[in-house]
Specification:
There is one protein chain. The chain is mainly beta. It has one domain: Nucleic acid-binding proteins (OB fold (Dihydrolipoamide Acetyltransferase, E2P)), CATH 2.40.50.140. 10% of the residues lie in helices and 47% in strands. The chain has one helix and six strands. The protein has one helix at residues 2-12, and strands spanning 19-20, 33-45, 51-56, 62-66, 79-91, 96-108. Strands 2-3-4-6-5 form a five-stranded mixed β-barrel. It is globular, with a radius of gyration of 14 Å.
Length: 111
């Protein structure tokens, strides 16, 4: 039942279909609209005054997220489902790729 509920929630979010991913699977994913689950590890404001945060998994892997304007700020240490669009790009100076999620919706994970 829980999987069906998550699927239904994904279908209803702004008419967009979101695909369940893990932080580890994001690098190989071809999906643009994704759902990931993790704990908020850091919060900050970027140069454009957008709230950004890092979400981590139980393996110690993280992904950066950019919160949509007028969204509620997530709390540190709380586990959330993050719905958003995945962006990947290369940064030659760093010698690696970078990925981030532009957040459409954030909801706390029920215990």
């Amino acid at each position: 039942m829980k999987i069906f509920t998550l699927f239904l929630a994904a279908q209803l979010t702004a008419g967009t279909t979101y695909h369940r991913e893990t932080i580890d699977s994001l690098w190989k994913s071809k999906n643009i609209n994704v759902i990931i689950t993790g704990e908020v590890a850091a919060l900050s404001l970027d140069d454009q005054k957008r709230i950004t945060f890092r979400i981590g998994d139980e393996h110690g892997h993280f992904v950066s997220c950019i919160l949509a304007k007028n969204s509620s700020q997530p709390l540190l240490g709380i586990k959330f489902n993050i719905y958003g669009s995945l962006k990947k790009y290369s940064v030659p100076e760093r010698g690696q790729g970078v990925m981030e999620i532009n957040v459409d919706k954030i909801e706390p994970v029920e215990k």
